[in-house]
Specification:
This protein has 327 residues and is of the alpha/beta class. The protein has two domains: 7-143 and 264-309, Rossmann fold (3-Layer(aba) Sandwich), CATH 3.40.50.450; 145-260, 3-Layer(aba) Sandwich (Rossmann fold), CATH 3.40.50. It is 43% helix and 18% strand. The strands form two sheets. The chain has a seven-stranded mixed sheet, sandwiched between helices. α1 links the parallel β1 and β2 (37-41). α2 (44-50) crosses α3 (83-95) and α5 (144-165) crosses α6. The relative contact order is 0.17.
């Protein structure tokens, strides 16, 4: 049995994701229900090193569930990668009598948490906050639903101008090295093709599909490209296609960081609330070095090592369906 949890710290780290504030709200309010003291750490691991701790009460998380970004702020922390940086972070946690930590973030955040927890013997529980949806051990990560809704809305607008000008648009979406955002965006927007890192796609096959569309007098086409696609980003792909097939007026749109911002969707708010609640109760129950997630609509806890190293595959059925519906 581990040390009784009386004081916890919560922080957001890495890239921001819509719904992080909803998760923070759930952590603070669940902690208050269990009569725990909770401190928010500003700027992730950087703030932990610098001792930027603030006691948080229920009123501090009022009226934030609908806000994008993170009120605790976030930052990358090269210093935390060093033993000296982690030693300073541990001294800060000790100074505030912290018994356990809740980390809201993605792959890099949990990698740091696993190393740090083992070095300093402080239990950590992770909440998956990343738009990429690439963490093993949860069907959805916080921010993914909002990001794909933002991307689909953008593609809908691009479709209007593509239709008006007989254009071929290559639209690049985020996702780092995973194709979850691209695949869902492609299906949801009715794109003609989706290029993702998990599937080896032939440019010749794409060009052949576009040529078939041209022969049918198809007025425009939209291709969704994941930023981590093996053949290159949207700009590179567009150049290669244009050299071989210039029937369309070819354009490129990179949605970029728009996908990180905005008010979180209802789905992301509910997901974040469930995971924030589960993380606090998990710490109380003695869990450590695990990520809280949702699998088949049930809360699960996955070891950090598995969450960050095991591959989370895209569904083959969705890939096949996207191809068939794009005929």
């Amino acid at each position: 049995m581990g040390k009784e949890i009386k004081r916890i710290a919560v922080f957001t780290s890495g890239g921001d994701a819509p719904g992080m504030n909803a998760a923070l709200r759930a952590v603070v309010r669940t902690s208050a229900f269990h009569d725990l003291h909770v401190h928010g750490i500003s700027r992730g691991y950087e703030g932990m090193i610098d001792g930027e701790f603030k006691r948080m009460e229920i009123r501090d998380v009022g009226n934030i569930i609908h806000r994008g970004g993170t009120v605790l702020k976030t930052a990358r922390s090269p210093r935390f990668l060093t033993p000296e940086g982690r030693k300073a972070a541990h001294e800060s946690l000790t100074a505030f009598d912290i018994d356990g930590c809740i980390a809201i973030g993605g792959n890099g955040t949990f990698t740091g948490a696993e190393i740090f927890s083992k070095e300093c013997n402080i239990p950590f529980i992770g909440i998956p906050g990343t738009i990429d949806n690439d963490l093993y051990g949860t069907d959805y990560t916080i921010g993914f639903d909002t990001a794909i809704n933002t991307a689909v809305e953008a593609v809908d607008k691009i479709r209007d101008t593509a239709d008006s000008h007989n254009r071929l648009f290559f639209v690049e979406v985020m996702g780092r090295n995973s194709g979850f955002i691209a695949l869902s965006t492609g299906i949801g927007s009715g794109a003609e093709s989706v290029l993702i890192p998990e599937v080896d796609a032939s440019l010749d096959a794409l060009i052949d599909k576009l040529k078939k569309g041209a022969r049918r007098k198809k007025l425009f086409s939209i291709v969704i490209v994941a930023e981590g696609n093996k053949e290159g980003g949207a700009t590179t792909i567009a150049q290669k296609v244009q050299e071989a097939f210039d029937y369309y007026d070819t354009k490129v749109a990179i949605i970029g960081h728009l996908q990180r911002g905005g008010s979180p969707s209802c789905f992301d708010r509910v997901l974040a609330s469930r995971l924030g609640f589960a993380a606090v109760e998990g710490l109380i129950a003695g869990k450590r070095n695990v990520m809280a997630g949702i699998v088949n609509n049930k809360v699960t806890f996955t070891p950090f090592q598995d969450a960050i190293t095991k591959e989370k595959p895209v569904e083959d059925d969705l890939v096949r369906m996207a191809e068939i519906l794009a005929i």
